[in-house]
């Protein structure tokens, strides 16, 4: 069995513009606030073409602080997956 190649990438500030200071509560709480950084989509495709599975990680403390719901986060996540 071949070894699986996986890369873990943080979301805010790596894939999308860091929301600190310019969005409500400094979190991406809706799709309209999710802005891909330049060349990220191309880089993700290249990583995938090299045989890597991509796992996006993110500490979303805004949920526990009550700034937005898990459902709001899922809405952003699933819109990005399409």
Explained architecture:
It is a single chain. The chain has helices at 40-49, 61-64, 70-81; strands at residues 5-10, 52-57. The chain is an alpha+beta fold and 82 residues long. Strands 1-2 form a two-stranded parallel ribbon. β1, α1 and β2 form a beta-alpha-beta unit. It is elongated and about 45 Å long. The N and C termini lie far apart (30 Å). The model has no long low-confidence stretch (mean pLDDT 88).
Key structural traits:
82 residues; 3 helices
Chain-wise SSE layout:
Elements: E1 5-10, H1 40-49, E2 52-57, H2 61-64, H3 70-81
Low-confidence stretches: none
Number of E-type strands: 2
Rg over alpha carbons: 14 Å
Helix content: 25-40%
Number of helices: 3
Please give a quick description of this structure.
This protein is of the alpha+beta class and 82 residues long. The protein has helices spanning 40-49, 61-64, 70-81; strands at residues 5-10, 52-57. A two-stranded parallel sheet has the order 1-2.
